[in-house]
Amino acid sequence: MTVHVAIVNRLLCYGAGSGSTFNGSKGKSEMATVERKPSFCRVCQNFCPVDVHIADGAVQRITGAAGNEIYRGYTCVKGRSHVALYNHPERVLHSLKKLPDGRFARIPTVDAIDEIATRLSAVIDREGPRAFALFMGTYVPFENPINLSMVASFIRAVGSPMLFTTSTIDQPGKPIAKSFHGAWMAPSQAFSDPDVALVVGSNPLVSLVGPAGFPMSSIRKLEARGGHLIVLDPRKTETAKRASIHLQLKPGEDAAVLAGMIRVIIDEDLADHEFIAENVDGYERLRAAVAPFTPEYVARRAGIDAADLTAAARLIGSAPRGYGASGTGANMSGHGPLVEYLVLCLSSIRGHWTRAGERLPSPSVLTSAAEPRAQARPPFPDVENPEKLRVRGLTASRAGMPTSALADEILTPGAGQVRAMISTGANPAKCIPDQLKVVDALRSLELLVQVDVQMSPTARLADYVIAARLPYEMPGTNGFMQRMAEYTVGAGLPEPFGQYTDAVVEPPPGADVIEQWRFFYLLAQRLGLELTFDGLVPDGSEPTPLDMDGAGDAGALMEIVHAGSRIPLEEVRKHPQGALFPEPAVFVAPKEAGWTGRLDVGNETMMGDLAATLTSARDPEDEAFPLRLLSRRLPYVMNSPTLAAPPGKPAHNRANFHPGDLAALGIAAGTLVEIRSPRAAVVAVADSDPTMRPGTVSMTHSFGDLPGEDDDVWRHGTSIGRLIADDVAFDPYSGQPRMSNIPIRVTALGGAG
Ligand SMILES: Nc1nc2c(c(=O)[nH]1)N[C@H]1C(S)=C(S)[C@@H](COP(=O)(O)OP(=O)(O)OC[C@H]3O[C@@H](n4cnc5c(=O)[nH]c(N)nc54)[C@H](O)[C@@H]3O)O[C@H]1N2
Ligand SMILES: Nc1nc2c(c(=O)[nH]1)N[C@H]1C(S)=C(S)[C@@H](COP(=O)(O)OP(=O)(O)OC[C@H]3O[C@@H](n4cnc5c(=O)[nH]c(N)nc54)[C@H](O)[C@@H]3O)O[C@H]1N2
Ligand code: SF4
Ligand SMILES: [Mo]
Predict the structure, then answer these.
(1) Are 62 and 54 in contact (CB under 8 A)?
(2) pLDDT digits (tens, 9 = 90+) for 516-558
(3) Beta bridge partners of 38
(4) Are 157 and 548 in contact (CB under 8 A)?
(5) Burial tier of 704 (Cβ tally within 10 Å: 0-12, 13-18, 19+)
(6) Which contiguous run of DSSP H or E holds residue 136?
(7) What gap in Å lies between CA 189 and CA 197, rounded to an integer?
(8) What sign does the dihedral 741-744-745-749 (CA atoms) show?
(9) Mean pLDDT for the chain?
(10) Residue 556: enclosing H or E segment and its boundaries?
């Protein structure tokens, strides 16, 4: 349905320079016809349904879709401000090629693809396919579900194992822990009226990821049931403030705290022995491994109150239903897979998984998930014949290729050295830890292609910048969110809501922009590759061969990606505003006759890692680097800030200190400090934040710019990635270095802005 509304267009334009939004109406206050088209935001995995307000063919703004019973008109500031990118004067509307003198010149996108094909073939012919790496980021899966399959298909056809994603610098502990523990073949109880929710190192009220889809409404629902929220976080976050028990632990001590909670549950005989007898191995091994983690020992070590720890364990131990969800803080602070594993163990010894006969409140709509069954998929040891990296003894894992090794794979000479790379929907110059090394590596490539919408730091390093379309300029579905629910506890939607959108606007007149997937399709054509395409949930069936003639057909690809979904894409498409698809209902099936799979809560490797934490309580760096830098997210940016910053928000990321630490260091809020880690030093603006645990400092990542080009901290903010060394204190499974809990020392510089 299209609604026409007349408004004064200038008032509704976002941000500065908004006159350019309207052809021929610059500076004039005149009436324009505004059309509203239903769609959904694709800046994050929540896919909030919106009305897109369009005047003279250009996106003006979005508003939350009225009448949607799930989202209730919700949008956030990140989603609303992203709209300013569409007609921003600095948006990249034409692909660019770097000239020998370092300047960029426009090049038709199809010509750029021809040239890239020629240069890429030369590298691959000379060095072999492993010399080509692909890096994909956040904006690949959200934008549309075709992108993911296309990227995977492209690199498979090239024959290179070097596909890197942000997974291994995000929460790689999740799939790795699952492989050690096994997986329940039905969802957790996150969506079905839990009595207790444990949140470890995540701040869902700001990040808007988990628990249970809509953080605030699920927390309210939990409270209304008389249930309890337990939060582990060194900072009294927005989420921690809502908790029944907040364990404000020292960073990096989550494994000890979780082991302590498990010990109390075992000790006080609060485990679900019936569930364990039926489905779980390793209980006795777990009991032995957690024995040293008495509440008193853990309390001393983690800097918390032993009584709070015991009380939290008893809440989990006595709740009939519950779940544990963890986030980046849990994964980035040193023991990701172990922390994720212990969270799974807590659920398994309490039997907090959905059981046979339960109706799923939120069955997937657009993915072809297997029928849920109340049975255990036994542990699935790591990938067979994993690709071996040439550095640090790392290999591919269940989380994919270790992204923290990419820079060294580019910089280390020898057979297999990466010489050409395409980065898409990502900003590797900012997001990959150890920025100094990463930028050196990107500069040293023979060919770097960046698919982007703006001249990001990575784009400025590239040989070619491919001008990308933005989400409202292409069709999409919210299927990826349903896939996320299968990936991790607490992600996904609380109700079976499905939505498809067509493109609702055309790119600005004269623009030569392309979808990420189409760029790879056309490049594959030029390279003479035959692509094969996977569905949104690979179900073991052979990928579908693609027709490699023509310009690529989004409709046909959408069909392949959603093939076999519970609700046919065609049906979902009949509801442009999206709809609930509760029928056919999905019930958890009973265990198959003769099924012997069991979960393992006493995996030897994980128990070994837990034992190792007993002797590694102190870092050698503690004396010289007494403070710990924590990760956090800001409500108004999605990872690296874009041109579309919301008005009135500072352009920099502040270093937040406990007021007592500020006073002890002689630092005034709003002045500059030097933050030094064993790897590097950066300058930041200090701020006072009483929610911090004393001894910790917290900052948001992906600010700052290229090294040497971001001296004006007030304008660029500060790169946290520069402080991280990728080759010390890294996780042996995923290669993830410590990206939170980073040892630092801080010196006042003064200089208020
Ligand atoms: N130190 C530190 N580093 C971190 C983290 C941390 O906590 N601390 N977090 C890590 C995590 S969890 C993640 S997921 C990664 C994120 O890292 P990335 O996936 O690289 O995410 P962004 O930084 O948002 O970069 C996205 C790029 O997409 C472009 N872009 C913006 N909007 C659009 C769009 O609509 N379409 C397209 N095609 N492109 C667009 C931007 O210009 C930018 O270049 O960072 C990781 N890095
Ligand atoms: N507004 C906004 N939303 C986002 C993003 C964004 O950039 N902005 N990014 C998106 C992305 S890519 C991701 S992956 C998700 C991440 O979503 P979350 O994982 O929820 O990320 P954060 O909000 O940073 O919460 C991490 C919390 O971990 C805490 N923490 C740090 N170190 C430790 C530790 O050692 N132990 C414990 N227990 N806690 C610790 C921090 O204090 C912080 O409160 O958010 C997504 N949503
Ligand atoms: S960015 Fe905000 S508006 Fe957009 S989908 Fe995510 S939560 Fe919704
Ligand atoms: Mo992320």
Answers:
(1) no
(2) 999 999 999 999 999 999 887 667 778 999 999 999 999 999 9
(3) 51
(4) no
(5) buried
(6) strand 132-136
(7) 10
(8) negative
(9) 92
(10) helix 554-561
How far apart, in whole angstroms, are the C-alpha atoms of residue 228 and residue 307?
17
Q: Which of 39, 42, 44, 72 most suits a substitution to test ligand 3, by most atoms within 8 Å of the C-beta?
A: 44
Distance 166 CA to ligand 4 centre (A): 7
Burial-class residue 551 by CB neighbours within 10 Å (0-12, 13-18, 19+): exposed
Whether the Cβ atoms of residue 566 and residue 577 lie closer than 8 Å to each other: no
Residues 6+ apart with CB under 8 A from 97: 104, 105, 106, 107, 112, 115, 463, 464
Using alpha carbons only, give the angle 424, 428, 434 rounded to the nearest 5 degrees: 165
- The Cα–Cα gap between 259 and 273 comes to 19
Helix (H, G, I), strand (E, B) or coil at 61: strand
pLDDT for res 15: 27
CA atoms within 13 A on the CB side of 311: 14
Angstrom distance (rounded) from CA 677 to CA 744: 4
pLDDT tens digits for range 386-414: 999 999 999 999 999 999 999 999 999 99
Token pair of 15 as six digits: 């941000």
Task: Please tell me if the CB atom of residue 79 comes closer than 6 angstroms to any atom of ligand 3.
Answer: yes
Ligand 2 binding pocket includes 215 (Cβ within 6 Å): no
Q: Stretch 62-85: mean pLDDT, rounded?
A: 93
* pTM as predicted: 0.95
Q: How many Å separate Cα 656 from the centre of its chain?
A: 23
Please indicate whether residue 740 or residue 383 has the higher confidence score (pLDDT): 740
Nearest Cα residue to 717 out of 460, 435, 468, 439: 435
| pLDDT for 492 | 84
Which two tokens mark 320? 């009939």
Query: Ligand 3 centroid vs 337 CA: distance in angstroms?
Result: 28
Interaxial angle between packed helices 145-158 and 516-526, expressed in degrees from 0 to 180 and rounded to the nearest 10: 20
Here the tokens at position 495 are 């109700």
pLDDT, mean of residues 12-16: 26
Instruction: For tokens 């939004």, name the residue.
Output: 21
